[in-house]
Design goal:
By secondary structure, this protein is α+β, with helices and mostly antiparallel strands. The chain has one domain: Ferric Hydroxamate Uptake Protein, Chain A, domain 1 (Beta Complex). It is built from 3 helices and 9 strands; from the N terminus they run αβββαββββββα. Strands 1, 2, 3, 7, 8 and 9 form a 6-stranded mixed β-sheet that branches. A 3-stranded antiparallel β-sheet has the order 4-5-6.
Length: about 170
């Protein structure tokens, strides 16, 4: 049997496409999450440092602030660092609370999360859905997160910033 160069070229192209698509999906899964739960938010700083265990003083409730920056609609450079967050909300949390738990408390914007725990993944925020080239990524105190929302244990006070980006944009 004789191999035709055209068939080999098409096969290599198909394999390359599958590898690229798989890589994109893996990157998006590493950054994901989901939401739809009753709110238990606090927006007053007075509750930022309350002792929840008066005897030991070891378990403090402090604020975790979530900021969501929606994608820009204009053409040009994406300058999210100078933009104002479209959604900001603070939640009382103790050390060890996961980001997934906090995300599920948000009422607005609507957040769709699939999976739970280590497989929790943000499908969409306020109708903006993850696709093959862009997804929702987040930073914790301005550091790019290297685990998903179900695995990230918070140590309040912290600020979480969500942006709709490519992985390359998120890690700049």
């Amino acid at each position: 049997m004789k191999w035709h160069p055209q068939k080999i070229s098409r096969s290599a192209h198909a394999i390359r496409s599958v590898v690229i698509m798989s890589s994109c999906i893996a990157m998006l899964l590493a950054c994901g999450c989901r939401v739809e739960s009753p709110p238990q938010s606090t927006t007053t700083p007075s509750s930022a440092s309350q002792d929840t265990d008066a005897d030991s003083g070891s378990s403090k409730t402090e604020l975790v602030t979530l900021e969501i920056y929606k994608p820009s609609t204009g053409s040009g450079e994406n300058s999210t660092k100078s933009e104002v967050a479209e959604f900001t909300e603070s939640f009382a949390a103790t050390s060890g609370t996961t980001l997934e738990e906090i995300m599920r408390k948000m009422e607005q914007p609507k957040i769709v999360i699939t999976g739970s725990g280590a497989t929790a993944f943000v499908q969409s925020i306020d109708g903006v859905a993850t696709n093959s080239s862009r997804g929702w990524t987040f930073t914790v105190d301005d550091e790019f997160a290297n685990v998903g929302i179900g695995s990230l244990k918070l140590t309040p006070p912290q600020t979480i910033r969500w942006r709709f980006t490519t992985l390359e944009e998120a890690t700049k």
